[in-house]
Write a structure and sequence with these properties.
82% of the residues lie in helices and 1% in strands. The protein is mainly alpha-helical and 456 residues long. The chain has a two-stranded antiparallel sheet with strand order 1-2.
C-alpha cells in the first residue's frame, strides 16, 4: 500500500460503511456458510419445479391459453365498468365546478366505451384467429416438450454467461493496459496523475470499447443460433428411429462453429451498431442536459421521439437477427438472405407471430412467478419445519432472499431457452407448412397436436 497515495477521509469512510453495512453482509455470508446444503437443496428443488412447469405447459397449454384469454377479456370489461362507475361518481359530486365535473364525466365515459369497444374488438379477433390461437398453443406445448427432452440446452445459457464474464475480465485488464500506455501527466487538483494519449491510442481505446459490445453481442447471437438450430433439428428429426435426445444440441453447436460462425459474427456486428447508436444518442442527450439545453419543451419532445425510434430500431434488429439465425439453421444460407427470408415469413404470418409473442410472454411471467414462489415456500418449510435445518438458522430472511434469487435465475434460464425454442419451432412449422402447401399437402414434420389443428 506504500506504493500508492490513497486519499482518506473519515466522513467518506463512515458514509461507505453506512451504505455497504458490512455487519449485515458478514451476517449474511455466515448464514449462507452454515446453511449451504439447504441452499443447494432449494436450487435442486427449483430445477425440479422448472421441469414440472414444462410438463404442465406441455399437458395443459390449451387450458392455460384460454384461461389467459378469458382473464384478459374479463379484465378489460372490469376496467370499462370501473371507468363508467367513476363517471357516475363525478355526476353526483357537487363540490366541483360544473365545467370541470362535465369534463371529467366525458373523459371517463370515453374511457369506458373505448375499453368496452376494445373488448368487443378483441373478442372478434379471437373468433377470427381461432385456428391461429390453436396453432400457437400447440407450438408452446411443443417447445415445452423440446426443453424437457433436450436438457443439454439448459447448460448453454450458464456456459455462455461464464464465458462472457471471462471475456469481461480480460477486456478490463486490456483496457487498463491501454489506458496507462500514454504519456503520464500530473493532475494539479487530483490525488492521481493522468495520461496524455496520442491519436492512435485514442482510436485503439474507441475500437476496444466497440469490441466490448461486439463480443457480448456475439455471445448472445451464438446462444440464439445454438438453441434455434437445436430446436429446428428436433422439429424435423424427432420422428427418426435413430434420433437420440440431446444429439441436436451438440450438432447445432458444431454446425455453428464449423459452418456459420461468420454469419453469427456479422449478425452480432449489426446488433452492435444498433446499440452503439443508442449509446451515442444517450451521450448527446446527457451533454444537452448538462448544458441546460434539454429543459426546452420542444427539445424534450424531440428527444423522446428519437429515443423511441432508436429503441424500435434496436428491437427490429434483434427480431431480424433471431429469425435470420433460425432461417440459417433451416436452409444454411448466408446471413443476409436468411434474414430477408425470415423477415418476409414474419410479415406473411404477422398475426401468428404476434399471438405467439403475447401468449408466450404471459407463460414466461407465470413460469417465473410460479417457480420462484413455490421454491421460496418450500425453502421456508425446510427452514421452519425440518429440525435438521431449522436448528442452524439465525436469520431466515436472508436465506429466503437468496432462495428467491437462485430460483428466479433458474426459472429465467428455462424460460429463455423455452422462448427461443418457441420462435424456432413456430418458424419451422410455418416453413414446413408453406413448402408442402405448394404440393397440395399438409405440414409433414409437425407434432401430433399441430397435425390435428391443421386437419391431418
Amino acid at each position: 500500500m506504500d506504493l500508492f497515495c490513497m486519499p482518506f477521509d473519515n466522513a467518506l469512510a463512515n458514509t461507505i460503511q453506512d451504505v455497504t453495512n458490512i455487519g449485515t453482509i458478514t451476517t449474511g455470508i455466515q448464514e449462507v456458510q452454515k446453511n449451504y446444503d439447504t441452499v443447494l437443496i432449494v436450487a435442486g428443488i427449483s430445477l425440479v419445479i422448472s421441469f414440472v412447469y414444462m410438463f404442465l405447459v406441455r399437458g395443459c397449454a390449451r387450458l392455460l391459453v384460454w384461461v389467459i384469454i378469458l382473464l384478459y377479456l374479463i379484465g378489460l370489461s372490469a376496467l370499462g365498468y370501473f371507468f363508467f362507475k367513476q363517471n357516475e361518481e363525478f355526476a353526483q359530486r357537487k363540490d366541483l365546478p360544473e365545467e370541470e365535473r362535465l369534463k371529467k364525466q366525458k373523459m371517463f365515459v370515453a374511457l369506458a366505451y373505448g375499453t368496452w369497444g376494445l373488448t368487443v374488438l378483441s373478442l372478434a379477433l379471437i373468433c377470427c384467429w381461432f385456428q391461429k390461437i390453436q396453432i400457437v398453443t400447440e407450438v408452446l406445448a411443443a417447445a415445452a416438450e423440446y426443453v424437457a427432452s433436450e436438457t443439454l440446452t439448459l447448460l448453454l445459457p450458464p456456459i455462455i454467461f461464464v464465458l462472457s464474464m471471462i471475456f469481461i475480465l480480460y477486456w478490463i485488464v486490456t483496457l487498463a493496459y491501454l489506458w496507462s500506455s500514454g504519456e503520464r501527466k500530473e493532475g494539479p487538483n487530483l490525488p492521481f496523475g493522468g495520461w496524455k494519449w496520442s491519436n492512435e491510442l485514442h482510436n485503439m481505446v474507441y475500437f476496444h470499447c466497440f469490441s466490448f459490445f461486439w463480443n457480448l453481442s456475439f455471445f448472445v447471437s451464438f446462444l440464439q443460433f445454438s438453441v434455434a438450430g437445436s430446436a429446428v433439428l428436433w422439429y424435423f428429426k424427432r420422428r427418426n428411429p435413430n434420433f437420440q435426445s440431446n444429439e441436436t444440441v451438440t450438432t447445432s453447436i458444431g454446425s455453428a462453429i464449423r459452418y456459420h460462425l461468420g454469419s453469427i459474427i456479422f449478425g452480432a456486428l449489426i446488433l452492435t451498431f444498433a446499440r452503439v447508436i443508442r449509446i451515442v444518442y444517450a451521450y448527446i442527450y446527457y451533454t444537452l442536459k448538462k448544458e441546460g439545453l434539454a429543459e426546452n419543451a420542444v427539445v424534450q419532445k424531440v428527444a423522446l421521439c428519437c429515443a423511441c425510434c432508436i429503441e424500435s430500431f434496436e428491437r427490429f434488429v434483434r427480431h431480424v437477427n433471431t429469425h435470420g439465425f433460425i432461417e440459417i439453421a433451416l436452409t444454411g444460407k448466408n446471413f443476409c438472405e436468411s434474414a430477408s427470408d425470415g423477415f418476409y415469413l414474419f410479415t406473411r404470418n404477422a398475426a401468428t407471430f404476434g399471438l405467439s409473442q403475447g401468449l408466450g410472454q404471459a407463460f414466461v411471467i407465470i413460469g417465473k412467478v410460479f417457480i420462484t414462489v413455490v421454491s421460496v415456500l418450500l425453502g421456508h418449510l425446510l427452514l421452519t419445519k425440518v429440525p435438521q435445518f431449522s436448528e442452524r438458522v439465525t436469520d431466515g430472511f436472508i436465506l429466503l432472499i437468496l432462495f428467491g434469487i437462485i430460483a428466479y435465475i433458474i426459472a429465467s434460464v428455462f424460460m429463455e431457452v423455452w422462448g427461443m425454442a418457441t420462435d424456432a419451432i413456430l418458424h419451422s412449422f410455418l416453413v414446413d407448412h408453406e413448402i408442402h402447401k405448394l404440393s397440395g399437402l399438409k405440414a409433414k414434420h409437425c407434432p401430433d397436436g399441430l397435425r390435428s389443428v391443421i386437419g391431418h
